[in-house]
Amino acid sequence: MARVVRNYDVIAPRIDDIIAERARNPQWDPFRERLSPPLTDAQLTALRNIYDIPMQLTNGFRYNDGRWFGSEANWKSNYNALLGYLRDSVPRWDETYRGGRPTDAEVKLWNPLNSPAYIQIDLRREDCFGHLARPLIIMHGAADPIVGTGEAEGYKNLVANTIGRREAENLLGVYYIPGMGHGGTQYDNLIPAQIDALEAMIDYQQSNGRRGAPPPAFIGIYPREPVTGPGTSLGFYDLPDHEHDDDD
Question: DSSP characters for 162-231?
């Protein structure tokens, strides 16, 4: 999250142009289709550092937590919330950083890879290894600027990699809601449908497939994602010939 905020500061003077171009062309590739006037090299690098955030778990599993195309407007509208979250959280995550009292400018620069080893070990305790044993439905806003949609994308692939595709097909249903950020009415209106689907999944598991059903093909108008592969994602990492940055 700190990476998103500090790189946003670089592109902030052009964010309205970026939002407008994305609305005009949802498939816009800012690294091949330049704005007019063009973004500076520093702004292009910062934009890339928001779209492309490679992650690796302690077990070696890799995924990309970059914010997705179409989420740009939410970067702007949620900037103060993101900064506030960092202000409250960084001193709890890393008591050693700037004496435990970092300024707003300093929390944007925090990088857990530079924290002491014992801090990194503690943070790594939150790693998930995909050992899903009970039915789970995830409905995630494809424009979420806070918890990147890549988290759900990575998790579904991690689960399939860990317990096998066939078991993942029965236990995990992932659905993306285009245009929605970190929660919204699109999600809230479908809570009853989600509960019905989850109850059917639980029955399906407990009866060994004699009752109930696996995750439905749709919840509302939103299709279920395949348990492996990129599905319907619109991320930087889906574009051809783009390598990943290790860090900014």
Answer: HH-HHHHHHHEEEEEETT--SS-HHHHTTHHHHHHHHHHHHHHHHTTTSSS-SS-SEETTEEBPPSSS-T
